[in-house]
């Protein structure tokens, strides 16, 4: 079933991807940092 708001869904997917635990490498020092989500669902 096609979405009625594909642009909104694509933008939301990008935001949600950043909220998942992942690793980022600092472009200045090259260190790898663990990024954890602090979301809490009730």
Which features does this protein show?
elongated; 1 helix; alpha+beta; 2 strands; two-stranded antiparallel sheet; 42 residues
Write up this protein.
It is elongated, with a radius of gyration of 15 Å. The chain has one domain (6-35). The protein is built from one helix and two strands; from the N terminus they run αββ. It has one helix spanning 6-19; strands at residues 22-25, 32-35. A hairpin with a 6-residue loop joins strand 1 (22-25) and strand 2. The protein is α+β, with helices and mostly antiparallel strands and 42 residues long. The protein has a two-stranded antiparallel sheet.
The DSSP helix count reads: 1
Uncertain residue segments: none
The N- to C-terminal Cα distance equals 30 Å
Mean pLDDT: 78
Number of domains: 1
Helical fraction equals 25-40%
Beta fraction? 15-25%
List the strand order in the largest sheet: 1-2
How do the SSEs run, as a string of H and E? Answer: HEE
